[in-house]
Amino acid sequence: MAVYVKNNFLLVSLVVLFLVVTSSYARISIQISDGDVNTICSKAKNPSFCSNFFKSTPQTKALDLPGVAKLLIDDASGDASDAQKQFDSLAKSASDPRTKNVYTQCSENYKDALSEFDDALKALAAKDGASLNIKVSAAMTDGDSCNSELPSVKPSPQLLQKVSDIDNLSGIVLVISNMLP
Fold first, then answer.
1. Residue among 162, 136, 161 nearest 69 (CA)
2. I need a labelling partner for 94 at 20 to 30 A (CA). Which of 121, 167, 177, 178 fits?
3. CB 135 within 8 A of CB 127
4. pTM value?
5. Alpha carbon of 143 to those of 19, 87, 101, 138, 165: distances in Å?
6. Tens of pLDDT along 135-168?
């Protein structure tokens, strides 16, 4: 009888341990829900952009919040890299000193934003929501510093759209950073 109780105790202990490990793992990697998307987009800087992003990016449904944040940061970083290169090219070809100065400053700002996005990815990997928020905010500030001068030099609508997308993607990440544990 003592062996039977000992074996049952061991079996029950293993089952409980398995359930604890499995349930804690499941909580860590829960896929984003429609409710999460609604919450995120209702708090986003541009709710319409946010909703369209989630509708047009089906892979987000298979990701958890950190996974979605990484995807957004990667997209914003890619756009920032493209914008930085375009501003650099525009600065090199500008003949007007003021226009050249605006484009040069924007190129530098987006170069700085790229560094902030890299740091944001590191903060995300470290599960540091506060640092993630700070780094993405800094990247947005770099872009905003450029945006105030752009209307006076009139870059292409495509470049302006890219600049707007960076800001909107970053805004979604800020909302997610506040939802992370």
1. 136
2. 167
3. no
4. 0.81
5. 47, 12, 15, 9, 11
6. 999 999 998 888 887 878 888 889 999 999 999 9
